[in-house]
Amino acid sequence: MRSLCLTFAALATILSVAACSDSRSEPSGPVAISDGDSRLLIRDVTGKEWDVAHARSRYGMQPSQFQYGLGPQAIRPILQPHMLLPGEEGYPEADGRFLVIGVDLFNSLRSYPIQVMGWHEVANERFGKAHVAVAY
Amino acid sequence: MYSREIDGEVLTLSASGWTYRNTFVLYDYETESLWYHLEGTDGLTCINGVYADRHLEEFPSTFTRWNEWKGAHPETGILAYP
């Protein structure tokens, strides 16, 4: 399953977002701050602190290997995805060769162009009663 | 693609801005728990936060090209540019 990996397109997104913020976003890894209260905090470029104590103790994840730390506003998810159906304006010609994530779930057929997903990373979707996240 | 339902609640997932070993770390708006696709596992695992150690189920999806997907599924919808 190919998902959430830092592919070239996604990396390009991150780097372009990083270029728009400031030079601190180079992937040198954050400084971990222990606050003496069983928390282990890493701070992103926006100053927001994230506790990763459990990630380290339970899963062996090293604070120094969390990278970029662009802040939660940098890559905004799609909250209300709009599906174009065949015949609607903007629906692409059938011979386009661009990359998509195709989903066939609960009697719904949908597709998500990588070009869009690379900018947003996550689309918060609903298939019938099921709430799902399409992630790139 | 992952479920975003847990204990009857619906989560809104987003990139956290962090990556870990070249993989995006997600978080949810509702609790700011961190979610990560651990190598060798299916779905997302909550690595920190109120849902620590809980999982979000993975659903199948296909990484392909539009012409192939459309050819196999003529009625497919496609995400509009937001």
Fraction in beta strands of chain B: 35-45%
Total domain units of chain A: 2
Strand content of the residues of chain A, in percent?
Answer: 25-35%
Order of helices and strands of chain A: HEEEHEEEEHEE
Based on CA atoms alone, the radius of gyration of chain A comes out at 18 Å
Structural class call of chain B reads: mainly beta
Query: Could you tell me which chain pair has the largest interface and how many residues each side has?
Result: A-B, 77 and 58 residues
Average predicted local confidence, pLDDT of chain B: 97
Q: Give the N-terminus to C-terminus distance of chain A in angstroms.
A: 11 Å
Q: Can you tell me the residue ranges of chain B where pLDDT is under 50 for at least 5 consecutive residues?
A: none
C-alpha end-to-end distance of chain B: 19 Å
pLDDT < 50 runs, ≥5 residues of chain A: none
Tell me briefly what this model is.
By secondary structure, chain A is an alpha+beta fold.
Q: Would you give an account of this structure?
A:
- The complex is a heterodimer of chains A (136) and B (82).
- Chain A has 136 residues and is α+β, with helices and mostly antiparallel strands.
- Chain A folds into 2 domains: 1-21 and 74-136, no CATH class; 23-72, no CATH class.
- Chain A has 3 helices and 9 strands, in the order H-E-E-E-H-E-E-E-E-H-E-E.
- Chain A has helices at 8-20, 53-59, 114-120; strands at residues 32-34, 40-43, 49-51, 66-68, 83-84, 99-105, 108-113, 122-127, 130-135.
- Chain A has a 3-stranded antiparallel beta sheet with strand order 1-2-3. Chain A has a two-stranded antiparallel ribbon with strand order 6-7.
- In chain A, helix 1 crosses helix 3 (114-120).
- Chain B is mostly beta strands and 82 residues long.
- Chain B has one domain.
- Chain B is built from 1 helix and 10 strands.
- Chain B has one helix spanning 66-72, and strands spanning 2-3, 5-6, 9-10, 13-20, 23-28, 34-36, 44-48, 55-56, 62-65, 78-79.
- In chain B, strand 4 and strand 5 (23-28) form a beta hairpin.
- In chain B, 48% of the residues are buried.
- At the A-B interface, helix 2, strand 4, strand 5, strand 6 and strand 7 of A face strand 1, strand 4, strand 5, strand 7 and strand 9 of B.
- Strand 6 (99-105) of chain A pairs antiparallel with strand 9 of chain B.
